[in-house]
């Protein structure tokens, strides 16, 4: 499966760190910018503003038009090649980034949006507004994921509820959306993200991996039948 990840969280690009990619030089070819690949097989391609910044601690203080222009470049001027899936990682909320992505993907088929919430009411309230945004802009909602759903003990693997639980599933019911599943708060997953290690290889027998794998398979099946 050939996958591209477009990171349009311009003010907080985290994809390079999460996937253990440094700050390689992004160069150009005849077709445009060449994305950064995470593997020798070139099965996972990335593009992020994080690759273009000299100082990783530099703040991106841009108004809407400049953000929109860069996102347009990311969509049209990156030589993604033949992809099976292009995943666009957006910041929370409904801002210029979301509108720019939709505007620039008009000529392509947008399969839909995956919305991620934590169980608390303050988070589900934000995601409800994102659901309204999707409906107003004609974006199909592929489903809702509840993140940080319980805490997995690194010693005994028992899952305990630190926050409230079930907010994502309840939101899905209230809005008529599909509930894709819950991902617990797992210290091992957090460590892998922090250190850029492959959680799927190191902890393939864990409850958390099982949850992520199940969600992935459900999404793939949904995309194949779309």
UniProtKB/TrEMBL annotation:
PROSITE patterns: MRP (PS01215)
GO terms of biological process kind: iron-sulfur cluster assembly
Location (main, coarse): cytoplasm
GO cellular component, one term: centriole
Sorted UniProt keywords: 4Fe-4S, ATP-binding, Cytoplasm, Iron, Iron-sulfur, Metal-binding, Nucleotide-binding
Localization in the cell: Cytoplasm, Cytoskeleton, Cilium axoneme; Cytoplasm, Cytoskeleton, Microtubule organizing center, Centrosome, Centriole
Gene Ontology MF, one: metal ion binding
Superkingdom of origin organism: Eukaryota
InterPro entries, per database record: Mrp-like_CS, Mrp/NBP35_ATP-bd, P-loop_NTPase, YlxH/NBP35
CDD domains noted in UniProt: Mrp_NBP35
General function of this protein: Component of the cytosolic iron-sulfur (Fe/S) protein assembly (CIA) machinery. Required for maturation of extramitochondrial Fe-S proteins. The NUBP1-NUBP2 heterotetramer forms a Fe-S scaffold complex, mediating the de novo assembly of an Fe-S cluster and its transfer to target apoproteins. Negatively regulates cilium formation and structure.
Oligomeric form and interacting partners: Heterotetramer of 2 NUBP1 and 2 NUBP2 chains. Interacts with KIFC1. Interacts with NUBP1.
Official protein name in the record: NUBP iron-sulfur cluster assembly factor 2, cytosolic
């Amino acid at each position: 499966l050939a996958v591209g990840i477009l990171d349009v969280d311009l003010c907080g690009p985290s994809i390079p760190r999460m996937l253990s990619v440094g700050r390689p030089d992004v160069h150009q070819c005849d077709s445009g910018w060449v994305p950064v690949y995470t593997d020798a097989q070139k099965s996972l391609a990335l593009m992020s503003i994080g690759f273009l910044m000299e100082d990783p601690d530099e703040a991106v203080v841009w108004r809407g038009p400049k953000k929109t222009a860069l996102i347009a470049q990311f969509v049209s001027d990156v030589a993604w090649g033949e992809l099976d899936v292009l995943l666009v990682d957006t910041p929370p909320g409904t801002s210029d980034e979301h509108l720019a992505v939709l505007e620039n993907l008009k000529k392509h088929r947008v399969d839909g949006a995956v919305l991620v919430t934590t169980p608390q009411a303050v988070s589900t309230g934000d995601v409800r507004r994102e659901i309204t945004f999707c409906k107003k802009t004609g974006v199909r909602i592929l489903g809702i994921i509840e993140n940080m759903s319980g805490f997995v003990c690194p010693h005994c693997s028992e899952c305990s509820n630190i926050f409230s639980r079930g907010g994502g599933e309840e939101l899905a019911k209230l809005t008529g959306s599909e509930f894709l599943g819950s991902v617990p708060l797992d210290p091992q997953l957090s460590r892998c993200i922090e250190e850029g290690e492959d959680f799927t290889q190191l902890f393939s027998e864990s409850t958390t991996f099982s949850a992520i794998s199940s969600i992935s398979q459900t999404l793939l099946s949904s995309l194949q039948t779309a």
